[in-house]
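ok so i was messing around last nite and threw this chain in just to see what happens. nothing serious, just curious
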Amino acid sequence: MKRINHYFALLAVALLTAVAGLTLSSCSDDMSADDLYTYKAEMLSDWLRNNEDFSDFAAIVERAGKMDLLSTYGTYTCFAPTNAAVREYLQSMGLSSIDELSVADCDTITRTALIDRMYFTAELGEELDQAAENEESGFDTKTAFIASTNLLGRYLTIEPVTVTVKQEDYDGTTKEVETTTYRINKTGVIIYELANDSVENGVVHPVDGMVASSSETLPVLLKNDPHISIFYTALQMCALDQQMYRIKDASFDPYYWRDEKKIQKKYYSGAQWDYCWVPEERRFGYTAFCVPDSILKNYSNIVPAYGKDINNWEDLYDYACTVYPEGAGASYYGKDAEALKDERNPLHKLIAYHLLNRKGVYNKLYTNCSIYHPLVNSVEWYSTMNPLSTLKVEHVAATINKFRGDAAANTLYLNRMYDPARPQLNQRGAIVSPSIAPDLTQEAVNGVYYYIDRLIDYGETTRNTVFNTRMRIDYYTLFPECMNNDMRTSRTWGNLGTEDPNADARNYIFPPGYLDNVILAEDGDFFLQNCRNYFWSYEGDEFNLRSDNDSYDITFNLPSVPSGQYQIRQGFCAMARRGIAQFYIDNIPQGIPLDMRNTNDDVFAKRIGGWIAIPDGNLSAAQKERLDQVKKDMHNLGWYHGPRSTRYVSTGAGSVKNDLQLSTSNSTSAASAARNPRKVIFEGYLDGNVQHTMRIRSVMAIGGAELMLDYIEIVPKSVYGVENEETAEDDL
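result:
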């Protein structure tokens, strides 16, 4: 929904008034002063000061020193509590007046209620469109997170609330009707009659309760939830709660690479989208997927294959032993306190696999950019806190596609596997509920947690089933710091972000040491270009490597996969300003350097094996025969087409605002452009018990030529090695 600026709306009124005045001048030359319209702009600060029913919140904002901020131009959403709500909050805290709040308290209350993006209630409702009530899991999932964080850096939940309001009919009679408003963070309900009150620099949604914010760490929230006591007891006994305490890196210097004016931009290559910013903070984050006691205590019915209920942590340990039998009899395999803390212990492995070292807000655990859902679901792969293990996260969209199987639409799954071409590979996985029990806080200062309706694991069955597929992994998901510091925009359309600090999207450059498990040469620049649905980039964003000294060298960890034979492919967009780089796996050079330069699509197509486009429609027999031969020629040289299920908007940046709106008429497939290939950079054995690394070193980077890191594919031989045409790897 687009905001209508008050200035232009009122200007139109003023013009109409003036025209009316000219029209009526022949009847009367004397106009009453009451007939003259005077425009008075009102900022958010003015709104708070001018509305007596919100004077207490205005006083809190004043004490926090934020009123000046709200008097400047911007795009804010304010969930302003009524005076009654503020007083109820003070009473719950044992306080009698605002004067008893500290300045820090006032700052927290103010920043909790403010988002620096504008959301009308219609847009808040759109956030809930991806939530559904899933009968199979038993979870009521009509809850979502607002896509942008508040000024405290936290995500606010939103859920629908039915209210009765009076409505005037066309004949002037008044009747009562039911309508929907929204509860924010399980505390303040937006007052329907007062919602969407526009001001010059935003929109105000008055609420009937103070919007709550937790200052607790994630383990404290887990401990305080009585519905997950078995899971939490196991987590605590394995000492995994001690690994989720970090909040922020106090040693991080936010002024790295800024000039004397503290301007953040570091790099600009001559195009507006290449301004980069140094991150403001280096925050840590965690995600916990918890199985409620109600499910564990009924596990024999919910998962008949196991056949036993789980009533305490000892039962959970017994279950873990069936999943992870390796090491039975060893000292670390037991139930004693020291054994449970060992990463090789079965219960430790089971619980740690339910944890991520990143803050995974529900609707940002998967992408909303470039994925064509009639063909595929959104899928991400995350390393877990169980060493050398990976978790599959799959969102089944609302649109029908052949990969849905018996899955529920608008549902998030963990470790689901369904492939119609290989029906023997079938695993239902666990459903993630976006919400938890009422009246409990879901988001901690350093993380978030969810209920899931099954235990998940990285045991043999999962490894042989879920990971027996092509794993397409966006580089964004390789580095937890990107998610922990909220670097991916939810606005993938519209004007590109520039050096303006209020831009919809920011590009980030990473100082050395900012990203864990990454070794970056000091003369190299590594930066994230934020996602746009019209970029030739998988999931809309990309990382780039460059150097003012024509040299870069970076090494980072690869996601772990089960032991076996694999191809690793690099997906990228070839452009004239790209460079040439040598790739290494475990510091061993792989083949010849990869040349990403492309000044002419036709010439580049010939270089990669005679590439021709894969069209959206059906092919004639002759066309299919030619395309099959081209594919063979490309594969022999280690090249693949771009994925047919990835599409880029081609009819205007603002025409498609989410992936559900993609179609063959408004977007172009990556398989139809030579500049979007995949290149095999490794083929061989990967040991699932070893942390593998990728190194990329510049061979030609003259003039700051970049290397684009868009995504990688890790593909088992069971997929890429199939020669039977009917079961060969698809183009998706």
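not much to say yet. The two ends are 33 Å apart (CA to CA).
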